[in-house]
Design goal:
The protein has helices spanning about 1-10, 15-25, 35-50, 55-70, 75-95, 100-110. The longest helix is centred in the last third of the chain and has 21 residues, at about 75-95. By secondary structure, the chain is mainly α.
Length: about 120
């Protein structure tokens, strides 16, 4: 998991897009827990927010939410809280970027969750 220290170094140097790429390149690493992948996706979204790329941040948050819904490591309460927060943020970012399809897609997912 040396890529984490690489990403932290890139963030300290304000190389946010490079950090996002480093993190995304390792999402499918063998042995990485599903809950950890979700956290990495949120971290990637934060990196994109630092460079004002809200659309990319929204897409990563939506992806994290979809992964969280499928994650068996999370309790139902954790899923509901996490997914609701991720999708609310994604909707806000899509809205500020005038992406009506993104707003619609994330809203549909958020308000169709069955718990």
């Amino acid at each position: 998991m040396g890529f984490i220290s690489d990403a932290i170094s890139q963030i300290k140097l304000k190389q946010y897009e490079a950090a996002a790429k480093t993190l995304s390149d390792h999402l499918n690493d063998e042995g990485l827990r599903e809950a950890s992948k979700i956290s990495l996706m949120e971290w990637i979204a934060e990196c994109y927010l630092k460079v004002e790329k809200k659309h990319e941040a929204a897409m990563w948050l939506e992806r994290a939410a979809r992964s969280a819904l499928q994650c068996e490591e999370l309790t139902e309460i954790e899923k509901k809280r996490l997914v609701s927060n991720q999708l609310s943020q994604a909707i806000d970012y899509y809205y500020t970027e005038n992406d009506t399809e993104g707003v619609k897609r994330a809203s549909t997912l958020k308000y169709s969750m069955q718990f």
